[in-house]
Amino acid sequence: MFDDKKLVIREISLADYFLLENFLFYAIHQPEKSQLPKNVIYNPDVYIYIQDYGLINDNGVVAKIDGEVIGMAWTRIIPGFGHINQKTPELAISVRSDARGFGIGTKLMESLFVLLTTKGYKQTSLAVQKTNRAVNFYQRLGYKIVLEKEEEFVMVKLLEEK
Fold this sequence. Notes:
By secondary structure, the chain is α+β, with helices and mostly antiparallel strands. The chain has helices at 20-27, 44-47, 104-118, 134-140, and strands at 7-11, 59-65, 68-76, 90-95, 123-129, 144-148, 152-158. It is built from 4 helices and 7 strands, in the order E-H-H-E-E-E-H-E-H-E-E.
């Protein structure tokens, strides 16, 4: 059980960038009974979510408890799976498996929405596999399905919405 009083959510810093590979791997939906190799993140279509992270349009937040990062949410304007246009940052989020189910993901997302709004963004997008239970999580946070592909949804959230 995680103590909410110890949870700190803050903007991502240069010192956190080395963690992006692990959290990118955690963010990949892995259906029950399958375990993807860690090197799957080096596929160019996946690695684009973190490659050279820290550019002008990159934004993110981290969740920490007792000084340890347990979750990250970040956005980039990239030609990724959920790309909408050059003004809409695409979101990736990951919470360590042992820290899921405590509302940390929701707090990360809400903090990221505030950060994006203060930077003038109007919406954010993401891609999620149809079989991923996170579809409901994203819908609860205000994401709407704007495109249905064979195996995934592309979703958009207007940042003015709650």
